[in-house]
Amino acid sequence: MAALIGITTYGRDEDNRFPLPGEYVDAVRRAGGIPVLIPPGEDDTDAMLARVDGLLLAGGGDLDPEHNQGRCHESIYMTDAERDGTELKLARAVVDGGFPTLCICRGIQVVNVALGGTLHEHLPDVVGEEINHRLPPRESTPHAITVHAETRLAAIVGELQFTAASWHHQAIDAVAAGLIVSAEAPDGTIEAVEMPEHPWLIAVQWHPELTAHCDDTQQRLFDAFVQAAEELKSP
Q1: Does the annotation mark 191 as catalytic?
Q2: Which of 65, 171, 187, 210 is 20 to 30 Å from the Cα of 141, by its Cα?
Q3: Catalytic residue among 105, 120, 194, 230
Q4: How far is 192 from 211, CA to CA, in rounded Å?
């Protein structure tokens, strides 16, 4: 039976809906998984994770800086206390339980903060604007990624240099204990981390789902994730 992949959605919008870009669903389906959407507000994370085989922490708005020992920068947007609470709890649960997990954009920030790491509140203040990580006002843009050799990420994507879609203004500052850096942007921004002692946890700052339909390098992330979820799921 195909792996069930839980995908976290955005918070409740002004129309009382929990939206999610369809590219996440499409990429999971191409990989052979069955997507199950998880909206914010669920308290029983153990029950949720018992019903799916893998978790995808999706992108979206910013974490409230209160979780990050950070300051309330004017650029911070779309904070959602309900989403923060659910996803931080989920992140700690998948680490403790060795649960197959792929984290994208906001997701990499969630898992890093959940484990005690910190974030840059606004990346251009730190690395400048020679490399655009998003276009104004808030649009995606491509830039180069360098993957560290001999990492799990390198083995999955099969390349150490590629271009990916970027869409963020925050990024990891202090890396949480247990995580290692596995990719960077040309300006030194951390673009991926992984957890060597975990069965399968990879987190990327870029948006592989945006180009996975036409870029095999990006789709390989979803393929490997769904395969791991299938192989590691409980009998």
Answers
A1: no
A2: 65
A3: 105
A4: 17
Q: Which amino acid is at 212?
A: A
Q: Is the pLDDT of residue 143 over 90?
A: yes
Give the CA diameter of the chain. 50
pLDDT tens per residue across span 47-85: 999 999 999 999 998 898 888 766 667 667 667 899 999
* Cα separation, 121 vs 171, whole angstroms: 8
- Which tokens sit at 68? 């990050």
Domain residue ranges in the chain? 4-232
Q: Which residue has the tokens 């992984």?
A: 194
Find the angle CA(130)-CA(116)-CA(103) to the nearest 5 degrees.
60
Catalytic member of 23, 191, 209, 230? 209
**Catalytic one of 23, 194, 207, 230:** 207
Q: Which residues contact 190 (CB under 8 A, 6 or more apart)?
A: 171, 172, 175, 181, 183, 184, 205
154-203: per-residue pLDDT in tens? 999 999 999 999 999 899 999 999 999 999 999 999 999 999 999 999 99
Note whether 52 and 2 are within 8 A (CB). Answer: no
Q: How far, in whole angstroms, is CA 138 from its chain's centroid?
A: 18
State the CATH class of domain 4-232: alpha beta
213-234 tens-digit pLDDT: 999 999 999 999 999 999 998 6
